[in-house]
Design brief:
Distance between the termini of chain B: 69 Å
Structural class of chain B: alpha/beta
Distance between the termini of chain A: 33 Å
Shape of chain A: globular
Order of helices and strands of chain B: EEEHEEHEHHHEHEHEEHH
Largest sheet of chain B: 6 strands, mixed
Shape of chain B: globular
Order of helices and strands of chain A: HHHHHHHHHHH
Radius of gyration of chain B: 21 Å
Strand order of the largest sheet of chain B: 6-7-8-3-9-10
Helix content of chain B: 25-40%
Helix content of chain A: over 70%
Oligomer: heterodimer
Structural class of chain A: mainly alpha
Number of strands of chain B: 10
Number of helices of chain B: 9
Largest interface: A-B, 23 and 27 residues
Strand content of chain B: 25-35%
Number of strands of chain A: 0
Largest sheet of chain A: none
């Protein structure tokens, strides 16, 4: 009981320290501003494409934001995570912190919690300002889809943060970790999409295989889940979407949740295992 | 208090510490002496749980691997250089480490006064000089009055005046209340001021274990002063003639 209490106390202390550091950092401010600006742009463009002027409602904006989130949020999560442990190691802080009565798991958990809160705040600020402006325009239809998108975006950010922290634990230098994170981002955002398209055409993949491959990627799962949330169907994704709906029906959301949870938990657990076993310097 | 048995630490194929056994009793102040690469810092990093190793290390009867947190609770650690958040205020740093060490009621002013840093609580870390940072690290190490103090070449980054001040402060504080001190150094003046016993390390082995007087007489007796000209000359006679001519 005392051990658990001291463990939680250490995680809270460490995360409060790192959260203050993250909120004061340039990346947090830049990402939040970028989110606000891009969210407003997407909303405006969505309205214009619908033939109207000014800002669009929540439903159309949500659909437009899905692609924006797919580009920006993985980069946020991966780079924030990649800089965490490797940055501290480079500054000589890691050896000093770990000479204190804390465990490596507590240190990693403290960092994860701090960055997860900072990322969630950044996402909420970005989405929140867009939502506020749209509410002022009295276009509040489909607000639930918009809220679902916010939740899914945070979930995507958590999984990307996990992968980023695994990279950070594996790399000795912060610059290398950031480089690897950007490469992973490129691979996930562009190569996965292009790979799936190319694979379908060149290798004549069956719909089952195509769906199986798509579900293995957290980005594709985010895309399918959020589009389903906005549109209530996956018709927009073509045969693979129809296949998913026919085969999985109501349990599709559970499948998506399972995949996102696995992509959030597995990398951070592996990171903890590696961090616990290897020498720090 | 500290019991190190058959400690071996390898980095790939190279052996940094080879079968080292050291015992430090309560109230004792033991120096680890040796050239760079002798294994001083490696032993300290094994003790503070930063490295995995072969052999056993116990502090107050607790195994440093199995009860790492409990062991580190008993150790106040001062590194070569304090690397920490530059934007953090001194008072916030003290509160942060006091909470991690499980010491809730800490008076920041009292902690700072102990290391003569009174009046610096509002300063940010980046505003402190090297010597002040080391004093702050010592203040943090002494939070909660741990029975063991471990110092890793703590004056390496200080100038000679800063070094003298810091060693004087250490001599006054380190061994108070029968605290056990283990420190790495290759400076004779530090060892004479702080140590009661000296363990000589040579390429990862314990070469000798002496009391400080025997050590001092051995080191002073064997000291050789080497003077090397900044601009070496091959022909000393020709160079002196040239110099005399130039002066004339």
């Amino acid at each position: 009981m005392t051990t658990t209490r001291s463990m939680i106390a250490n995680i809270v202390t460490l995360s409060r320290r790192d959260l203050r550091d993250a909120l004061a950092s340039r990346w947090f401010i830049l990402y939040s501003l970028a989110f606000v600006a891009l969210g407003l742009c997407v909303s405006y463009v969505s309205a214009s494409s619908a033939g109207g002027a000014g800002l669009a409602g929540f439903g159309r904006t949500s659909a437009g934001l899905v692609n924006l989130v797919l580009l920006v949020v993985p980069l946020m999560g991966l780079t924030a995570g990649a800089g965490s442990v490797a940055g501290d190691r480079e500054r000589g802080m890691l050896t000093y912190l770990l000479a204190q009565p804390i465990s490596r798991w507590e240190l990693l958990a403290g960092k994860y919690v701090a960055l997860a809160i900072a990322l969630s705040m950044s996402i909420c600020v970005g989405f929140g300002v867009s939502a506020m402006v749209m509410s002022l325009q009295r276009s509040t239809a489909d607000a639930s889809g918009y809220l679902l998108l916010v939740g899914l975006t945070i979930l995507l950010a958590m999984s990307m943060l996990s992968i980023g922290m695994l990279i950070s634990v594996l790399c000795r230098r912060a610059a290398v970790a950031t480089g690897v994170a950007v490469s992973v981002w490129l691979a996930m955002v562009f190569a996965t999409d292009l790979g799936l398209m190319a694979g379908t055409i060149a290798m004549k993949l069956s719909i089952e295989t195509l769906f199986g491959l798509a579900v293995a990627s957290p980005l594709q799962v985010f895309k399918m889940w959020s589009l389903q949330g906005v549109d209530a169907s996956l018709d927009v994704l073509g045969p693979a979407g129809l296949y998913a709906q026919t085969e999985f029906g109501g349990s599709l959301k559970l499948l998506f949740l399972g995949v996102m949870a696995a992509w959030t938990l597995a990398p951070i657990l592996v990171a903890g295992w590696v961090f616990n076993r290897r020498a720090l310097l | 208090m500290i019991q190190i048995n058959h400690l071996t630490k390898r980095f790939g194929r190279s052996v940094a510490v080879d079968n080292v056994s050291i015992r430090v009793l309560p109230g004792e102040s033991v120096a680890l002496w040796g050239a760079n690469g002798a294994g001083k810092t490696t032993i300290i990093r094994c003790l503070t749980g930063l490295y995995r190793y072969e052999g056993t290390i116990q502090v107050d009867g607790h195994d440093a691997v199995r009860h790492g947190k409990r062991v580190r609770q008993q150790i106040g650690y001062v590194p070569q250089e304090l690397g920490f958040y530059d934007d953090l205020r001194v008072s916030a740093a003290i509160e942060f480490f006091a909470t991690l060490r499980g010491v809730s009621a800490t008076s920041t002013d009292a902690v700072l006064a102990r290391v003569q840093l009174d009046g610096h609580a509002r300063k940010r870390m980046r505003e402190l000089s090297g010597g002040m940072k080391q004093r702050l690290a010592l203040a943090i190490a002494l939070i909660g009055d741990p029975p063991v103090l471990v110092l890793d070449e703590v004056t390496a980054s200080l100038d000679s005046a800063g070094r003298r001040e810091f060693v004087a402060l250490l001599a006054a504080l380190a061994q108070a209340d029968g605290r056990c001190v283990l420190f790495a150094s290759h400076r004779l003046e530090e060892i004479e001021a702080l140590a009661s016993r000296v363990i000589l390390l040579d390429r990862g082995h314990v070469a000798d274990d002496l009391d400080v007087y025997a050590f001092a007489s051995r080191v002073k007796g064997s000291a050789v002063l080497h003077l090397t000209p900044a601009d070496p000359v091959d022909d000393f006679e020709a160079a002196s003639t040239q110099l005399i001519e130039r002066q004339a």
